[in-house]
Amino acid sequence: MAGLAVNVDHVATLREARKVSYPEPVAAAVLAELAGADGIVVHLRKDRRHIQDRDVRILRKVVQTKLILEMASTSEMVGIALDIKPDLVTLVPEKKEELTTQGGLDLFVHKNSVAETVGSLQDNGIPVSIFIDPAPEQIKLAHKINASTVEIHTGTFCDATTPQKMDQAFDKIVDAVKLAHKLKLKINAGHGICYNTIKAFNGLHEIDEFSIGHSIVSRAVLVGMERAVKEMSALIKEL
Ligand code: PXP
Q1: Could you tell me the residue range of the domain that residue 72 belongs to?
Q2: Which atom belonging to ligand 1 lies closest to the Cα atom of 7?
Q3: Which residue of the set 10, 33, 70, 153 is catalytic?
Q4: DSSP for 29-68, written as a single string
Q5: Which of 11, 35, 166, 212 has its CA 20 to 30 A from that of 218?
Q6: How many domains does one find in the chain?
Q7: Distance CA 182, CA 24 (A)
Q8: How does DSSP assign 69-131, residue by residue?
Q9: Which of these is catalytic: 10, 50, 153, 191?
């Protein structure tokens, strides 16, 4: 059965909207874990628009399951990761002007620098996942540079506006998952997954973990974190 890693970035987004001390993403993480989350994810962005350095440091001490740090492949972030030692680092592309991470890391373009980051982190005992589009060439490159895990970008599928576009996008995810499995990579999946789109992953048992943030935090605003996480976990159990 696949696990659920809950991304609490958007709890911090709400806090940073007013630059106050609440809501506390660490409290959200504790509630998510108590509701059955298998991991907590945060993205420390260069511009610190939501998660702050202190959040990551406190989470490292508080999280009981596993702490997954999403970050760009930069020397600043590598330094922070080596210091904090998350249980997994997920390397993502980052653009200042984007609302959220758009697309996976393009390993055709960034293979050498990403390989160096993967080496520095994994040599220090921190496994690395690379967030990539569901494209065979990207999976093969992730394997070639020794990443332990790939996270398949599910955004194109989740955001598709017609059934035909959804089907096309999902076929690519299936092919990518099968190839990654064949190459013995650990497989995570995420971006844009909500309480409806998660159901499409039924039968795709090669996926180890789903990384889900926005839909869970959005539901938590209305029904509470515990119920929001439990409802997503129950849907994942049925897959
Ligand atoms: N995985 C990665 C690599 C991401 O960058 C994000 C967004 O921060 C997510 C998963 C979660 O996406 P969402 O918030 O749309 O569920």
Answers
A1: 3-237
A2: 11
A3: 70
A4: HHHHHHTT-SEEEEE--TT-SS--HHHHHHHHHH-SS-EE
A5: 166
A6: 1
A7: 41
A8: EEE-SSHHHHHHHHHH--SEEEE----TT-SS--S---HHHHHHHHHHHHHHHHHTT--EEEE
A9: 191
**pLDDT, tens digit (0-9, with 9 covering 90-100), for 74-107:** 999 999 999 999 999 999 999 777 777 778 999 9
Q: Which amino acid is at 6?
A: V
Cα 41 to ligand 1 centre (Å): 9
Cα gap 61→59, rounded to integer Å: 5
Considering the entire predicted model, what is its pTM?
A: 0.97
Our mutation pick for probing the ligand 1 site, out of 4, 6, 7, 187, counting the most ligand atoms within 8 A of Cβ, is: 7
> What CATH number is associated with residue 201?
3.20.20.70
**214 given a catalytic annotation:** no
pLDDT in tens, 14-57: 999 999 999 999 999 999 999 999 999 999 999 999 999 999 99
